[in-house]
Specification:
- This protein is of the alpha/beta class.
- It has 3 domains: 4-205, Rossmann fold (3-Layer(aba) Sandwich), CATH 3.40.50; 215-367, Rossmann fold; 383-457, Alpha-Beta Plaits (2-Layer Sandwich), CATH 3.30.70.
- 37% of the residues lie in helices and 19% in strands.
- It has helices at residues 11-19, 27-37, 52-63, 80-93, 111-119, 129-137, 154-159, 163-171, 188-197, 227-238, 250-262, 276-287, 298-301, 321-328, 349-359, 398-406, 435-444; strands at 42-46, 73-76, 102-105, 124-127, 148-151, 178-183, 202-206, 215-221, 243-247, 268-270, 293-297, 311-314, 338-344, 365-367, 383-388, 416-421, 426-431, 454-457.
- The strands form 3 sheets. A 7-stranded parallel sheet has the order 3-4-2-5-6-1-7, sandwiched between helices. The protein has a 7-stranded parallel sheet with strand order 10-11-9-12-13-8-14, with helices on both faces.
- A hairpin with a 4-residue loop joins strand 16 (416-421) and strand 17 (426-431).
- Helix 3 crosses helix 4.
- Residues 208-213 have low confidence and may be disordered.
- Bound molecules: adenosine-5'-diphosphate and magnesium ion.
- The site of adenosine-5'-diphosphate has 17 residues, from helix 3.
Length: 458
């Protein structure tokens, strides 16, 4: 693994990478960044969690003209959550160039607000195809000076039926541009599209399928009605810090959650029935340690960077092997080892066979004891999440909140966990034991001369 300093990058960027804790390059970064800096078109196959965002962002950040307030890079993502995460990661990477503005443009937010932001100009726009196209048609997003176009998670984007929108968006971009396409798989429609929109693309494949070694995969033969208890026992035995349980349907999500609740195991659910606001909240609570388990469908969890995930459990084996690879790719990220467990119903051996065939492995489904001991105490997180109704746009910083919480000595620094700021709301993780005090302080004391409403999410 090579350090970033091997590349010809500016000193401030290298320093910023150091601050982010990025020392060595991931394989996809090592292979693509040199090509990107040369201005080549790149078609890269890499699994989720391989560090694609930094790969493409470093490429365009270094060559961007900060003085020209025009959109110079556009990143298309399949879902709102993913788009938000990519925009966040680009903001962190771009912190060494303070005048560079990054906008996240997705559905579910009033159009007028986005048009207002765009009227102040941005250098980088990240967004979902539907909303981006709408703004292009209205003339409020202009791509005349676009230098780099990125299709992130392109296979997912096409799966979701965005191909025509993507083509139409490209029609608004200058012909002389750099086009990058990142995808976990290369089905025919991706190759076809690449042929249409890219110039002499360099193809990079980074062990998309060879996940063994970093991720420990196990399969367990389980009767349908025992699967809930199987999940509980796997978590009880392996004690992963954070687990995503994948289900094929939202009904299954509901069943799993009920059963977990019955055994006093705290979990959160993420599925397509939730509104955008609720989904953001769930993800924030899961990633700040306020719940050890997230029960999710694929649609809701697509492409998400839930970092530091210790385990993935497939309550259902997915219909497609590619989905399996996507799911387990969320664990074992950036060099950390991860666990990937799958429950196989008696009639589902053929699905395991297909996974074996596609990944060149020979896993068998092992038996699993599904009796949960009577005295199992359950699983409660030691953090809870509070929110206040003020955020980035209210000029509230994480430091302001930490200051307010610890100023009076009622709370100590170590009682406070992750602080996530959105535009108009901030989520604060605090130790459960200190949550009462924290709630009182946040509703009582002014922050930056303003008082806010504080809520407990449990
Ligand atoms: P992908 O888009 O391929 O799924 P991301 O770009 O979201 O992956 O990166 C996955 C995680 O790895 C993120 O939390 C990111 O901050 C982290 N990461 C990326 N590159 C590096 C690196 N070189 N060193 C350490 N962590 C990294
Ligand atoms: Mg990504």
């Amino acid at each position: 693994m090579k350090p970033f300093s091997h590349l010809n990058l500016s000193r401030p960027l290298l320093e910023n990478l150091g601050k982010l804790g990025y020392e060595t390059m991931t394989p996809v970064q090592e292979w693509t960044i040199p090509l990107l800096l040369k201005g080549k078109d790149v078609l890269a196959r890499a699994k989720t969690g391989s560090g694609k965002t930094a790969a493409f962002a470093i490429g365009f950040l270094e060559t961007m003209d900060g003085e020209r307030y025009r959109v110079q890079a556009l990143v298309l993502c399949p879902t709102r959550e993913l788009s938000e995460q990519v925009a966040g990661e680009i903001r962190r990477l771009a912190a060494y160039r303070p005048n560079i503005k990054v906008l996240n443009i997705t559905g579910g937010v009033p159009l007028e607000r986005q048009e207002h932001s765009l009227s102040h100009q941005a250098h980088i726009v990240v967004g979902t195809p539907g909303r981006i196209l709408k703004l292009l048609k209205r003339g409020s997003l202009v791509l005349e000076e676009l230098k780099t176009l990125v299709l992130d998670e392109a296979d997912r984007m096409l799966d979701m039926g965005f191909i025509d929108s993507v083509r139409e968006i490209i029609g608004y971009a200058p012909a002389r541009r750099q086009t990058l396409c990142f995808s976990a798989t290369f089905p025919d429609d991706i190759r076809l599209l690449a042929g249409e929109i890219m110039k002499d693309p360099k193809e990079i494949t980074v062990d998309a399928l060879h996940t063994r070694g970093v991720i420990e995969q196990r399969f367990f033969l389980t009767e349908a009605e025992e699967r809930g208890r199987a999940v509980i026992n796997l978590i009880r035995t392996y004690k992963p810090e954070s687990t995503v349980v994948f289900c094929n349907t939202k009904d299954a999500c509901r069943r799993v959650q009920e059963e977990l609740e019955q055994y006093r195991m705290h979990s959160l659910a993420l599925h397509g029935d939730l509104e955008q606001k609720e989904r953001n909240e769930v993800l924030i609570r899961f990633s700040n340690g306020s719940s050890p388990i997230l029960v999710a469908t694929d649609v809701a969890a697509r492409g998400l960077d839930i970092s530091g995930l210790s385990a993935v459990i497939n309550y259902n084996l997915p219909f497609e092997t590619e989905t399996y690879i996507h799911r387990i790719g969320r664990t074992g990220r950036a060099g950390q080892a991860g666990l990937a467990f799958s429950l196989v119903k008696p009639g589902e051996q053929f699905r395991l066979d297909r996974i074996n065939e596609m990944t060149g492995s020979d896993y068998a489904a092992d038996p699993l004891d599904c009796t949960v001991p009577e005295d199992f105490p359950g699983l409660r997180p030691d953090m809870v999440t509070l929110s206040i109704n003020g955020g980035r746009k209210n000029k509230i910083s994480a430091g302001d909140i930490l200051g307010a919480l610890t100023r009076t000595g009622e709370l100590r620094g170590e009682d406070v966990g992750k602080i996530d700021r959105l535009d108009f709301i901030t989520f604060v993780a605090v130790k459960r034991a200190a949550s009462g005090k924290a709630l009182k302080i946040l509703s009582r004391d002014n922050i930056k001369g303003r008082s806010f409403k504080a809520l407990l999410h449990d």
